[in-house]
């Protein structure tokens, strides 16, 4: 019986591998054709060619507005730019920002296969046969890695006087983005801050502040529609932000959505604007990475750190391409399970993911209307989840996914070590046992770097239902954490 199960599992793995290879080879071709289609459409509808990451690095860099890409230490790329967010904050100086090479270096499956040696192929076949979890993850040879790095880093010299701050009001969105009042809400505001939903005690007498940071393709409603109502009688001032590029917050078309931009906008819109001196942080998924970025700058002000489903994939010290490693963990190019297939299309294919945004995000009002019809307008939860999932631009999602989840996510060790060594605040971690987006192992990986962190795995809950559906219990758990941290 045991042998039969093992044989069936091996057959299933092989079927998944073979079908995935065929499907993703076809998607490589489709993405290339969509690239040509979007170039023509962008020119016809916006009278301007739009550079994409399919171009060679040199062509991409020289056609991008105000961006200079050049090699840095440890094969990390740096970009010299006048960021749109610098204009928002009244600055025009040139700064350095780290970006992830996964934006422009995502080799196709056929390219990977063509570079494999006989020994590499043999090792891969053995790995597929023996592994159930990490099967089929093709390792690029060292020669291939050197080729990618060499072709990806190009030095472009530009005079500072030629780089001008960008006018955000000139181009609110692309033709393929939604231009409804909700998605362009930020254009009607004067300060161009993030959209922040607040909840203060009566008389604004709260003496402790809490910052809530949502996850990828979500919004502040993830907190305000679940936890906030259960904390209405608490003594805390609550702040929930729509991250840059999501919800009602600004969606600058030329932003690279780096860690610095995200963190600075949170500082400007919450910490500085509301005179927040010390605070608790509650963060979900992608928000956990940004929370660690805030901790790095405001360590002495953090009273407690609560992380939900932190996407931490430790990178082996022998791994030559840390960001590529994390990208393959997040998006393994498999058709099964379905969540892996969706993540792979969003992460590996720039133009396919733009098409998905065109169909879903640009038409989110239609999908919300249909959802209301199906649920007879009785499900507020479905409505705010759809709103958070669909109200963003492709540019924001694409760059945040690569620059934050793959880029910063590949070097979280230093952030976690800093929390362990330099901070004394309480660290609590929650994870749903059935989470297929971020494996439970990620939370235990965080605990391995921060031994004092308390991990709670909630049975029969996934990435969303970890909060949605158990908000009453979760609100009580949060208050206990904050209370113990204030003692």
From TrEMBL:
<keyword id="KW-0472">Membrane</keyword>
<dbReference type="InterPro" id="IPR029058">
    <property type="entry name" value="AB_hydrolase_fold"/>
</dbReference>
<feature type="domain" description="AB hydrolase-1">
    <location>
        <begin position="210"/>
        <end position="467"/>
    </location>
</feature>
<dbReference type="Pfam" id="PF00561">
    <property type="entry name" value="Abhydrolase_1"/>
</dbReference>
<feature type="transmembrane region" description="Helical">
    <location>
        <begin position="12"/>
        <end position="34"/>
    </location>
</feature>
<protein>
    <submittedName>
        <fullName>Probable lysophospholipase BODYGUARD 3 isoform X1</fullName>
    </submittedName>
</protein>
<keyword id="KW-1133">Transmembrane helix</keyword>
<keyword id="KW-0812">Transmembrane</keyword>
<dbReference type="InterPro" id="IPR000073">
    <property type="entry name" value="AB_hydrolase_1"/>
</dbReference>
